[in-house]
Amino acid sequence: MERRRVVITGLGAVTPIGLTAMESWQAVKDGVCGVAPITQFDPTGMKVQLAAEVKGFVPENYMSKPEAKRMARFTQLAVVSAKEALENAGFTLDEAEADRCGVIVSSGIGGLFLTEAEHDKGKEKGWDRVSPFYIPMGICNMAAGQIAIHTGFRGMCSCPVTACTGGTNAVGDAFHYIRDGYADVMLCGGAESAVTPLAIGAFTSMKALTQNPDPDRASIPFDAERSGFVLGEGAAILLLEELEHAKARGARIYAEVVGYGATCDAYHMTAPRPDGSGGAKAMEMAIADAGAKPEDVDYINAHGTSTPLNDAGETAAVKTVFGDHAYQLAISSTKSMTGHMLGAAGAVEALFCALALQEGFLPATIHYQVPDPACDLDVVPNQGRSADLRYALSNSLGFGGHNGSLLFKKWEA
């Protein structure tokens, strides 16, 4: 089967550090931290007081009030990001067949805030008083569904629900779908908005979240004092196109998607394999899928959650795959700025990889202070820097043992 080339031609995002893709990227370059006290509910009395919330997002600035009322927040973020991606790409359906345009958008938790609110309403007023919109607004696939409705894309429309790897799976699956000839254009990515009492409380109970009250020492990937992740929210959508399709309409190309690997640890509900072998295999698969070599990779946007197990295990996995070259490449975690956006994380980080390649810039791991011997690679501490980049790898490692890696290549006409 002919393997068609796939490029990124449009970017859209709403994140804790920006309301657009380019605003978010500029914040990455500036080392802006999106971690702050929780505002979406009153966390008084809870052990965790911080999150990485999207700030200043007013849905009515992007859609009508009735539309906004019939979308959960994660869907609003996704639809707005998709609209931006299309506008950024200068793409309209006049330039393609609707049946060969698809949508793959992940969410790990969906409309959890709605579940909490409607459950409270049902207990108070009776279960038959629950909103008729609760189910169609709250289910995880509705971000993908609403994007398809708003764009008229009639091809495959799907939603990987693979925890923290979902956004990466969405981009990887869309890449393969175009590469193997099933579509010409795909909107893909992830969306999440789960800064709620139940989510914060549940992640706290399982010891996943940091309880550090200092925003500058909360999300600190690879630092010896890391103590858990900071829950974030947001969305990122990428427009992928088959190369000749993009060229035919004179599209601007950000980067090329060249490899994708996905594996499962088959080990534990939440903990990764200590040797990082599952993540290592996903990286190896992505590199092989691209026909590249490990030494070709210049930068890794790590999963880098700021949990003790993840960061040490991911470092071990990188050493397994890259050997001595592990000490020559750069590996940073933008979760130090955005927090952990669960199902949106991989999509946001894919977007950052594309822009890193385009601009030749390595994002920093901010707030890094105390080196950890188990995480002894070049984590681009505190300050991003310019670099000659040709290949960038993005990793995602999710609860359930899901591992995903994407390999991107600098666009060379």
TrEMBL record:
Pfam family, one: Ketoacyl-synt_C
Upper taxonomic lineage: Bacteria, Bacillati, Bacillota, Clostridia, Eubacteriales
NCBIfam families: fabF (TIGR03150), PRK07314.1 (NF005589)
Keywords annotated in UniProt: Acyltransferase, Fatty acid biosynthesis, Fatty acid metabolism, Lipid biosynthesis, Lipid metabolism, Transferase
Species of origin: Oscillibacter valericigenes
Function (record text): Involved in the type II fatty acid elongation cycle. Catalyzes the elongation of a wide range of acyl-ACP by the addition of two carbons from malonyl-ACP to an acyl acceptor. Can efficiently catalyze the conversion of palmitoleoyl-ACP (cis-hexadec-9-enoyl-ACP) to cis-vaccenoyl-ACP (cis-octadec-11-enoyl-ACP), an essential step in the thermal regulation of fatty acid composition.
Family: Belongs to the thiolase-like superfamily. Beta-ketoacyl-ACP synthases family.
Pathway given in the UniProt record: Lipid metabolism; fatty acid biosynthesis
Presence of the UniProt keyword Signal in the record: no
Enzyme class: transferase
Name used for this protein in its record: 3-oxoacyl-[acyl-carrier-protein] synthase 2
Keyword check for Acetylation: no
InterPro entries, alphabetized: 3-oxoacyl-ACP_synth-2, Beta-ketoacyl_synthase, Ketoacyl_synth_C, Ketoacyl_synth_N, PKS_Beta-ketoAc_synthase_dom, Thiolase-like
All residue ranges annotated as the Ketosynthase family 3 (KS3) domain in the record: 3-410
